[in-house]
Amino acid sequence: MELTKAEAQIMDIVWQNEPLYFKSILEHLPEPKPASSTVATLLKRIQEKQFIAFRLHGNSRQYYSLVPKTAYFKNQLGNLVRNFFDNSPVAFASFFTEQSTLSKKELEALKAIIDAQIKAKDQ
Asked: What class has domain 5-65?
């Protein structure tokens, strides 16, 4: 399931600060802040998509995530690789490293990450 840009903005706030109340979500939103009714609608849609849930504390709702941020990003990255790179992680990595403006230092850092993963797979 995919989040809209506005839903993803709300989810980022939840992921970074959970659990949190509606008022806290509003406070974390950048200016110009949307109407509270808009945020309530977004939270309802995100809940229907089963990304968040809430606990009632009196009349207040305390929101928490049901989907970890890493799981959502992994799914989104998988969709990107499937839809734009013929389901080839190698094609994605090739495009990413050749078409981006990565510095030599950043490429070396990526190489170190890849080398560490290769070493881990050998064990």
From this structure: mainly alpha
The domain segmentation of the chain, as residue ranges, is 5-65, 89-123
Contact call for residues 49 and 66 (beta carbons, < 8 A):
no
Strand, helix or coil at 30? coil
* Token output for 58: 């009196």
The answer to whether residues 50 and 65 touch, using CB atoms and an 8 Å cutoff, is no
Q: With a threshold of 0.85, does the pTM exceed it?
A: no
**Mean pLDDT over residues 34-53, rounded?**
97
Provide the token pair at 7: 């839903």
Query: What's 35's DSSP letter?
Result: P
For 59, half-sphere exposure in the C-beta direction (CA atoms, 13 angstrom radius) is: 1
